[in-house]
Amino acid sequence: MKKVKKKVTRKPPSKKKELTIYIYNVVEDEWSFLSSIQPIEKRYDLINDCNLSSECYLFANASESEFIYISPIEIPNSFKNYFQSITANKKVDIYVPQMKTSLICKDLYTDKQLFGEIVSRAKKYKKVTLISYATSPEFLELKERMIQLGINVLTPETPELENAWTVNFFGSKSGIRQLAQQSRAAEPDFIMPDGVICVGKLDAAKIAANRYIKEKGVVLKTNKGSGGHGVLIFRDGELPKDYKSCEKRIYELLSEDGYWERFPIIIEELINVNYSAPGAFPNIEFKIHKNGKIEMLYYCVMMVTKEGKYYGLDIHEDVINERTAARIIDTGYYIAEQYSEAGYRGHFDIDMIASNNKHIYVCESNTRNTGGTDIYKLIYGLYGEDFMSDVYVLNRNNYKFNNQESISFKKIIDIIQPILYDKKKKEGLILSSASILEYNQLLYTILGKNKKRAYELQEQLYKLLEVFGEAK
């Protein structure tokens, strides 16, 4: 009798549960503004500055055991290993698209080899969670292309296509100002500095000069800016006192950058602020979930120069008094409700100013991951939901070395070893970036049991860094 081979049926390999893909598309988000900057060398410098923060946002995935990270710049293995030594992450694959058009999502889906590799891997998972620094048209196109290729894509931090307008509208200076004007009766505490919106630098110079002469101060802002660019602040004595000369000088300054002609211009009253006061610039961050549920993540105080440039933050429940905290939380929730109702989804923050006259003004809103999102996710992963009371967080990006040659990441690690974050003690310093060292700068987060301890650790850092000479 002839033996018949038994047919063996093999089950297809079962799919893994979930894969997270995070895309750091900061330049893509700010492209309308950055692409207007002239000369082109200045534009490339600003783009480079934006991209240098890529390593920081690895920490926005601190609680992910496995994820793919799409970066605009190469991230050295030494920093990846350092990131993994601090967080719960076991596996991260970092990819950099070959094309460099500044639209990273587009660069990804037009990079046939890389996109094909990511799609093949994504198909091994039941679902893929796609998250970006900001929702952009290119990000939405990437999502659509992945869905068409048979991948079950979830975007929990992104509005639906028909509500994507909320990103640029509420994230613009004019959009949040319109919301404030509409909300006067419903939320009297939602106030902004008195101001107007105009188009064209000629009219802007006339309006701003008039305000400056009357009030001895004025602020001009582009509708969309980037990292302190697109803001002009004039205080008493900084402009001519007669109207015609003042208008001429403002017009000259507006003519130095093309973006003043390209976007609406907001002319505001100058709010008097005590820059040495610890709570002069409160900020609050929220997340609106896919179902519209609003979650307050944390509040903090921002560090801002007199020129309006951000350089860090402090997070702790006591960074502002109870009255101020209650006020910014109340106003924040009201704004979050309006965003949620309009269809916005994902992270956003609200920058505020605590003035000398005791008023708290809303300054702007960033509808994206923020300067604190990565820090929040890191400390939440390390300390849990009570982090606001359990740890004092100090983050800075303004330390500059006075060296001719850049300092290596390994060298810095060796020098500051005594104060590096200790998992047992649950305190210390965490470096946010290695690439920034090439430009003789240091980005760091310090975690201490209280404010006194956090600032002590910062003083120890300065002391240890004296081997490199005086700071710039």
From TrEMBL:
Molecular function as annotated in GO: ATP binding; metal ion binding
InterPro entries xrefs: ATP-grasp
Protein name in the entry: ATP-grasp domain-containing protein
Keyword terms: ATP-binding, Nucleotide-binding
Family matches, as SUPFAM superfamilies: Glutathione synthetase ATP-binding domain-like (SSF56059)
Domain ATP-grasp: 182-396
PROSITE patterns listed in its UniProt record: ATP_GRASP
Keyword ATP-binding: yes
Native source organism of the sequence: Candidatus Roizmanbacteria bacterium GW2011_GWA2_34_18
